[in-house]
Amino acid sequence: MNLTLLKHEVLATVKLFCIILAVLMLYIISIVYMYNPEMSNTLNKLTETMPELMSAFGMSNIGNTLIEFLSTYLYGFLLLILPLVFIIMSANKLMMSYIDNGSMAYLIATPNTRFKIVFTQVFF
């Protein structure tokens, strides 16, 4: 494993991770402040009118408490999608950006083997 390359990737990905984390935190705070126990009847009626759409986003059971509401909205959709976006963007950046801009030739020209470079990227 090439520790210098690993350190570079960690430092380069911190900004993207902080942006995704900030969006997630803002959304969690807005969901907590948006919770209203009287609103559950309205959401249940919405679920009855469009059950396929709500279940596609994992929101088929709204719940009556704050914990059930958070688990439905956050774990049903958001906490699955945002990490997936981060993983896809990171994976694309790890190998494809080096190949696209020609930096992979410089990495291969170092005394590191191709396996070592690829293993470092996969490990990250």
Largest sheet: none
- What is the string of SSEs from the N terminus onward? HHHHHH
Report the radius of gyration as a whole number of Å.
21 Å
Terminus-to-terminus distance:
10 Å
Estimate percent helicity.
over 70%
The secondary-structure class comes to mainly alpha
Average of the residue pLDDT scores: 81
Overall shape: it is elongated
Tell me the number of helical segments per DSSP (H or I, 4 or more residues long). 6
Number of DSSP strand runs: 0
Strand content: under 5%
Report the uncertain regions: none
Walk me through the structure.
The chain has 124 residues and is an all-alpha fold. It is built from six helices and no strands. It has helices at residues 3-34, 40-49, 51-56, 66-101, 103-109, 114-123. Helix 1 runs antiparallel to helix 4. The longest helix has 36 residues, at 66-101. The radius of gyration is 21 Å and the shape is elongated. The protein starts with a helix and ends with a helix. The mean pLDDT is 81.
Short description:
By secondary structure, the chain is mainly α. The chain has 6 helices and no strands.
Can you give keywords for this protein?
single chain; mainly alpha; 81% helix; 124 residues; elongated; 6 helices
Layout of helices and strands:
Layout: H1 3-34, H2 40-49, H3 51-56, H4 66-101, H5 103-109, H6 114-123
Helix pairs in contact: 1-4
